[in-house]
Amino acid sequence: MPAQSAFELLQRFLxxxxxxxxxxxxxxxxxxxxxxxxxxxxxxxxxxxxxxVHRYAYVLFIGPIPKGMLVCHKCDNPSCVKPSHLFLGTYAxxxxxxxxxxxDSKRHESKKIPLDQIRVIKAAxxxxxSQKSLAQRYKVTRPTIWYNLHNRxx
Length: 154
Hints:
- 38% of the residues lie in helices and 18% in strands.
- The protein is α+β, with helices and mostly antiparallel strands.
- It has two domains: 6-100, Homing Intron 3 (I-Ppo) Encoded Endonuclease, Chain A (Alpha-Beta Complex); 109-151.
- The protein has a two-stranded antiparallel ribbon with strand order 1-2. A two-stranded antiparallel ribbon has the order 3-4.
- Helix 5 (131-138) crosses helix 6 (142-151).
- The chain is globular and about 55 Å long.
- The termini are far apart.
């Protein structure tokens, strides 16, 4: 298989988005956190470059991403690639934005679940209940359930 040209990568990117009045939504493959992914085949032997599509969109429409910088979303939609919804920020900027918008769940919600409930959660998960269902039942985020399943000994 020959390497893909920059034009072919651009074409695949454009085919994967739905341009709406608000967000431009990535419709193809997304990671478990909802961020779009795009693979660029560079040639043999199986060399690929993986892009998070919001970063690709930033480079395409705005310009280079300086080393150490993140491409953040004003809209808080990880699958959005609309250039006006993207901005550069440091890890600290992204963290402040997360706290300001009330998405600061990962560091604090684990304290909201008492150890006796974590035992029940782990048992339900072992029986096949989904993390999403458990998060809804205990009124926390799915990442909080994941964190407690994998990082809290009971």
